[in-house]
Amino acid sequence: MLFPKGKEFFERIDLIAQNVLESAKALQDFIANSPTSAAKLKVLEDKEHEGDRLTHDVIELLNKTFITPLDREDIHELVSAMDDILDYIFGSADRMVLYKIPYISDEFKALSRVLVRTAEEVAKAALRLKDLKNSQMILAQCIEINRMENEADEAHRHAVAMLFEKEKDPVNIIKIKEILDHMETATDRCEDVANVIESIVLKNA
Amino acid sequence: MLFPKGKEFFERIDLIAQNVLESAKALQDFIANSPTSAAKLKVLEDKEHEGDRLTHDVIELLNKTFITPLDREDIHELVSAMDDILDYIFGSADRMVLYKIPYISDEFKALSRVLVRTAEEVAKAALRLKDLKNSQMILAQCIEINRMENEADEAHRHAVAMLFEKEKDPVNIIKIKEILDHMETATDRCEDVANVIESIVLKNA
Amino acid sequence: MLFPKGKEFFERIDLIAQNVLESAKALQDFIANSPTSAAKLKVLEDKEHEGDRLTHDVIELLNKTFITPLDREDIHELVSAMDDILDYIFGSADRMVLYKIPYISDEFKALSRVLVRTAEEVAKAALRLKDLKNSQMILAQCIEINRMENEADEAHRHAVAMLFEKEKDPVNIIKIKEILDHMETATDRCEDVANVIESIVLKNA
């Protein structure tokens, strides 16, 4: 490691990515079991707050570190982009409770599974970032995130088509569609992280 | 000031931030008093056009200035991000008229108050940018914007839950929810400005 | 051309912009004629895949080229921003089929016409990028994109007002409004491209 604080930065980036992955798994658990469970929602809220704290710590570390392993603004953009995923994960569960949605459809379950798998790919890409010289491998990992995002998009399209097919109450449609859209935006935010990582790799190629 | 045009750039950034704050106040006024008043909507439209003009002037100045106090692309990103707030402020009022919404709920008023307070914090952060050495203070100001955005998020969640509770007409729900979402996006855009400012501070730390 | 691969990069940027323009025209054709035609939807899907391939090729070329005519991260941001337009163009047509929308309104046609004209301005701006010294002309072209985006915004506002006026079925409103919003987001993404181009011009001024 060429930079005195290099290891610390990459460890923190990894921690943030792991928190995103755990949050996606907590959402899958929340949906699979008991969507109105206040205790399980609390798990997701705690992970979101943990994400805010971790992101803030990186910003503080950036501000007081003289030499950083990547450009400061790039590390900032990366951790901010990962933090954005968390907001949409928590927001999806939160709205299920807040809107008092009448039932949990299979489509919610399908979307939450794709989200977990996308978050796994994000965590792998974040971990590989410390090995910048291996640009081909990191870029391949970003393509994998894009592929997962396309899968999420397909799952979302199917979910919304099913919703219009099966649900006839307009207010239920409004509520459920917003949550489906929110879950799909969470995977869109994963793709944004892939974009930031690609940009970092190319800049340092 | 080390740069010949430094003072001028910071004055213009400040002007744009003040225009955002005035626009947020005009929206609060619009909502508090007479939502269908064409005259008050005109005030908001004028402020949006003023914002476009101010942003365009900064781009022109950037293009003809040799040395700038911050990287050109950063000043461009900052003024563009502030301009985005204006679009959502005007868009919220505009939709109230265009959609002929049936009533102004207390939730609109609550959200517009939080938006004014968030815009006040944005204006403070923009003003402090000229004192880049004082990075701690500027970053603390950005945290304040994030805190206000969380408050807006809470107000928005409450507003949408109330809407589903009280309003039973689906078309009214669609109209009012979009405006509530639009107002919340305006505070999201304030957070984007905080992100740009953080990035500038860290890059120059 | 000062850079060995300069010509190749600008040719590829131009190809991507042309693909966006053709995609906008294919959407206009799709809407004008037979919205449920699987064959015409396939044209749009092919163009989206072609866009993914072209974008990916540029990333590969960036990763293996030593000296690039613009900063690598800027070329990456530009082609990613252009690719985003494609997603919203295809997504608009795709949803018309998927949601089984009951009719094609004149408002869809009007919005698709403005989108084609905006994409034409994007293609012109992308083409001019190779002549970076002529910054005034490129910036003027970006203002033209912004002007078109304002026109699209007007067309969208009118379309949504008409929808609330004429359509009384809430589920139809939900479906049609989302597609109108999607088409308007496609022109928003054109404005994002203008923003990236402005930023590149100013950075290199």
Describe this structure in words.
The structure is a homotrimer of 205-residue chains. Chain A has 205 residues and is an all-alpha fold. Chain A has a single domain (6-203), classed as Methane Monooxygenase Hydroxylase, Chain G, domain 1 (Up-down Bundle). Chain A has six helices and no strands. The first copy, chain A, has helices spanning 6-33, 38-64, 72-98, 106-128, 135-166, 170-203. In chain A, helix 2 (38-64) runs antiparallel to helix 3 (72-98). Chain A starts with 5 loop residues before the first helix and ends with a helix. At the A-C interface, helix 5 and helix 6 of A face helix 2, helix 3 and helix 6 of C.
Note the topology.
3 copies of one chain form a homotrimer.
Chain A: H1 6-33, H2 38-64, H3 72-98, H4 106-128, H5 135-166, H6 170-203
Helix pairs in contact in A: 1-2, 1-3, 1-4, 2-3, 3-6, 4-5, 4-6, 5-6
**Going by CATH, what is the homologous superfamily of chain A?**
Phosphate transport system protein phou homolog 2, domain 2
The protein's oligomeric status is homotrimer
- Main interface pair? A-B, 20 and 21 residues
The amount of beta strand of chain A, in percent, is under 5%
Distance between the termini of chain A: 17 Å
Overall structural class of chain A, as computed from helix and strand content, comes to mainly alpha
Helix content of chain A: over 70%
Q: What is the CATH topology classification name of chain A?
A: Methane Monooxygenase Hydroxylase, Chain G, domain 1
Number of folding domains of chain A? 1
Task: Average the pLDDT over all residues of chain A and give the rounded result.
Answer: 94
Main β sheet profile of chain A: none
Number of helices of chain A: 6
The dominant shape of chain A is elongated
Helix-strand string of chain A: HHHHHH
Q: Which architecture name of chain A does CATH use?
A: Up-down Bundle
Which runs of chain A of at least 5 residues are low in confidence (pLDDT < 50)?
A: none
Q: Please write the CATH class name of chain A.
A: Mainly Alpha
Output the radius of gyration of chain A.
18 Å
Number of strands of chain A: 0
